[in-house]
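Hey, quick one: can you model this chain's 3D structure?
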Amino acid sequence: MMLSKLLTDQTEKPIIDLDVKGLTLDSRKVALGYAFIAIPGAKQHGIYFAEQAINNGAAVILYEPSKLISNTKITDPIYIAIDGLSDKLGLIAARFYDFPSKKLSVIGITGTNGKTTCSQLLAQLLPDCGVIGTLGWGEINHLNITENTTPDVITIQKILRYFVDQHKQTVTMEVSSHGLEQGRTDAIELKGVIFTNITRDHLDYHGSMEAYVQAKLKLLAVPGIDFVVVNKDIPYADEIISTSPKSAAIICFSRQNNSQRNPRVLTASNVCYTLKGIDCLLHWQGSSYPLHTPMVGGFNLENILAVISALLASGDNLSDIVEIVSNKIVSISGRMERLTDSHHSLQIFIDYAHTPDALERVLKSLKPHCGNKLSVVFGCGGDRDKGKRSLMGSIAAQWADEVVLTDDNPRYEQPEIIINEILEGCPKDKVTVINDRKSAICQTISAANDNDIVLIAGKGHENYQEIKGIKHPFNDKEIAIGALKAKRVQLC
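Sure thing. Here's the predicted structure for all 492 residues.
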């Protein structure tokens, strides 16, 4: 696209005009003819990487004037200053990729927990569906790695363009509070929005629950929303509904059957939870249908209700939805993923639970089905919300019979400090500390007996452990499977 067209209404007519071959915020990813975008970052301004971008072939540098570079003299005409570039970048990127979201039905999913499960389940159920989220982007069984739940503002438009070119019809997209606060979804049109829940998380970034909630609500300002799905059971439900566009259809879901009389609320009754799945009776607009799903736990019932609500909003009828949900969905990697072994009745669950609410929900779901001892292996991430650490310690001690504290992703923090802050919330006589995560998992599984349940929480699908800026290969599921095999040998 010609530079003058790309920057229409965004700045004065550029001194030079040229054919821009690509856009990027990362100087390392610049190719010949690209425009390098330099905006203020968390630590420094992108302008300091402009020379590297030029060496890699950048044809033009679009930069945001800032106090960070007030002493830097920029006279070369390939440098173009654009006031408020950070806020304009979504539109610029959408224009470069020919506004791909207009050609797709994009469903944005936000919430503290459940985003990944809901996006993956919808992608399983909808034809010609692309997905963007924590597990990656692409087709459901062929995902490319993403660095963030919600990619940067340029990358996300590029991905949507790819989906258009691949003739996708629908895209399910996880939208994080960071992504909303930083404008990564700017200039994306949404067909629908799903709010799974809102509980404590990322307060190290947002500062308060009020700011965190307001960040989530920004998703409702996106143009073109046809429907909004809301978890009626959460404290913020009324605020979400009142903030929703007046033209959007509101569909709520609830695990409480007392909402059944409301024709716009999907509810469930006669719920039976087992370690093999959920059976219940769904109610919607005077009709009732039985549902079975292999998903485990009350929180997964909420996720399934959210997904069904979105399908109802899209015009499908409940009987058809129930049939496809019962026959088609499978569990999500690292989300209440169950490992068993035919040689004994020990059961192991891998889950991404890394917030107080998520950990409590998982443990509460497992506790009634544990015939003997419920053990949990978990830690907390470094350089993240420290206030949740003691809360998670308290929750673990309340619901588990054995708590094994270990390292998560310590990042640049000292692991011992993180562990001690978790210990503030739980009695030490119930806790074993094993910093090395592999040893913690293996020792806990080795010591477990028949009818025990072991929950390995916090990392889920992640295939690395981040220590002092380096990501080391590490996968909870692989370690657990290896420990199970070793235990089988011991039993023989």
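One thing worth noting: The two ends are 67 Å apart (CA to CA).
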